[in-house]
Design brief:
By secondary structure, the chain is mainly α. Helix content is about 75%, strand content about 0%. The chain is elongated.
Length: about 575
């Protein structure tokens, strides 16, 4: 211990002892904690220093916590800040920081003694007077860093007490890389606190953090970009990026020469995410929109830079959220071919970005024809075989959307790709429910818009079970759409009805006819499918067929008039036909 402390703590028998290597007794811990409340802030500062040093040992952290050191140091921080006593503020904050290091109980003690306010405000008290030799600009931030780790409740309380604003002040005051580093690390501890993100965004501080990325170490730049990413992931905060110019700075960082590659890459990806907000997109497109569209498309084609290709595709995908922008992309003539080319790469990131962008474009009618004409069936099969459920889902969704109101010949060109229909049928058993549902919906559109030969091939591939699974969908519109498609094709192609019966069609239709959630109109449509399935004598003689016939007969006395009429027509026209 230093000479000035030796004299004061002689009674504690600590002379010539290294606190960092010494295990305390409860008696000594209690005496040190008592000194924290000394009327002399100089004496109390010495006690704070002892707490900080002793707490470098895990056993001492626990013992001092039990002895009341957390509350004592928090109270000392408040006293020191009020009296502008820098040394006491520094030592008390060091004490709290070391007490909270890897010790959840002590973090909770900070909350219990209402220490969040003192901890949030001590940041400025430890280094506001740079001329003071006792100043330690990073001491308060270090305490915050340890206290907020893995403790959402304490982190939230610190934010409410203004810790974000004080850490931003510290970041602006930092004169050394170490001070900058600890300020950034402390800020990063709050990236999962919504209120912290809101304060960062609404104060215009995101622009400041982005500017700092080119001035700090790569490690610190990563932390800053992670904070910005957390803000970008909150949709409600994206308009704030327009107000402080952050969205344009992201674009600049992606393009600026000399920016560290990782910073440039992450900035581009963050830009693409920000463009999901209309205000951000509008601001970017105002800045020479035609040039930027061309630039984003050019990024897609960068075969030697996967990250840039992905960024370009994500940007184009977010631009393609309106018919007007889709028209601009079609007029460009290169966007869709570039995305279709990117889709062929055997890479999860490029598949995800390109298929997502194409899906957005396919919502615009004229784009469907271009996409379907240029799409590689093999690339689609490759995506459907991806080990990632979200890729399987996006690929199914793209194909389903691209089929709508297209010519049977254009559909057949893709649908005959070896393995495509079989893979769609297999995905019905996916562990991810939305994948199974989306792959089944592809068959609905193939039945609606494809030719009879494609329908037959789909049935041979196992489409019947997939389609019947949609009859149990929670969405009535989808149940209705599926039933109509099945009625039309099974009436026209007997093999469809046979496949549906073999796949459990009688049971599926029977279940839907008695499901109270179905509207009378849907019940009538489902009954029409049942009538087709019961159209042959052999079908009506099976146990399942007889059960379905009995259900339809019972509906002749249903409460709904249209259901009664439909059931009567089926009974008299189909069930009585020998």
């Amino acid at each position: 211990l230093n000479s000035e402390m030796e004299e004061h703590f002689a009674q504690l028998e600590l002379r010539s002892v290294s606190a960092a290597d010494t295990t305390l007794t409860l008696e000594l811990a209690t005496k040190i904690v008592g000194e924290l409340s000394s009327e002399s802030l100089d004496d109390a500062a010495g006690a704070g220093r002892l707490v900080a040093e002793f707490c470098k040992m895990e056993e001492n952290r626990a013992l001092l916590g039990e002895a009341g050191a957390v509350a004592g140091c928090c109270a000392l921080m408040s006293r020191a800040a009020a009296a502008s006593h820098t040394r006491a503020a520094v030592q008390a904050s060091r004490g709290v920081g070391n007490l909270c290091f890897d010790n959840a109980e002590n973090r909770q003690r900070v909350l219990a003694c209402n220490g969040a306010e003192a901890l949030a405000r001590v940041i400025t008290a430890t280094g506001a007077d740079a001329s003071n030799p006792d100043a330690n600009l990073a001491a308060g931030a270090g305490a915050v860093l340890n206290a907020a780790t893995d403790d959402p409740q304490l982190a939230t309380s610190l934010v409410a007490e203004g810790v974000i604003e004080n850490l931003l002040w510290l970041l602006g005051q930092a004169a050394t890389p170490d001070q900058t580093h600890i300020a950034i690390c402390a800020l990063a501890r709050f990236s999962e606190v919504n209120e912290a993100l809101a304060r960062l965004a609404k104060s215009g501080s995101i622009h400041t953090l982005l500017t700092k990325t080119t001035e700090v170490s790569l490690e610190d730049a990563d932390e800053l970009l992670d904070i910005v990413r957390a803000v970008v992931n909150v949709d409600a905060l994206l308009p704030e990026l327009v107000r402080d110019g952050s969205v344009m700075l992201l674009l600049e960082l992606r393009q600026r020469a000399g920016v560290p590659p990782k910073v440039a890459t992450t900035s581009g990806l963050l830009l693409s995410a920000a463009l999901s907000d209309d205000a951000c997109l509008e601001q970017v497109l105002k800045q020479n929109g035609a040039h930027l569209l061309g630039m984003f498309v050019a990024w897609i084609g960068q075969t030697d830079d996967v990250d840039l290709s992905v960024t370009g595709a994500l940007c184009v995908g977010n631009i393609a959220r309106s018919d007007a922008n889709c028209e601009r992309l079609i007029a460009d003539g290169t966007a869709i071919p570039a995305l279709l080319s990117l889709m062929t790469r055997d890479n999860t990131a490029t598949q995800h970005a390109s298929i997502g962008a194409l899906k957005n474009l396919s919502n615009y009618g004229p784009a469907k024809t271009i996409i379907l004409a240029g799409m590689s069936g093999d690339a689609l099969v490759q995506a459907l075989h991806s080990g990632h459920a979200h890729i399987q889902y996006f690929a199914s969704s793209l194909f389903r959307s691209a089929l709508i109101k297209q010519s049977p010949d254009a559909i057949a060109r893709i649908a005959v790709t070896p393995g495509l229909l079989a893979r769609l049928a297999t995905l019905r058993g996916s562990e991810e429910p939305r994948v199974g549902a989306e792959s089944a919906r592809v068959f609905v559109n193939l039945f609606k818009f494809g030719n009879d030969d494609i329908v037959r091939q789909a049935i041979e591939a196992g489409a019947a079970a997939s389609l019947l699974s949609l009859l149990a969908s929670e969405h009535e519109m989808l149940r209705n759409e599926t039933t109509i498609a099945l009625v039309g094709t099974s009436s026209r192609l007997p093999e469809v009805g046979v496949a549906l019966r073999d796949a459990g069609g009688f049971q599926a239709v029977n279940a839907q006819l008695t499901d109270p959630k179905n509207s009378p109109e849907l019940v009538c449509t489902i009954m029409a499918l049942g009538a087709v399935l019961l159209s042959s004598r052999e079908a009506r003689q099976t146990a399942e067929g007889q059960a379905l016939a009995a259900t339809i007969t019972s509906l002749t006395s249903a409460p709904s008039e249209i259901v009664r009429k439909q059931a009567t027509a089926v009974r008299d026209g189909v069930l009585s036909n020998e």
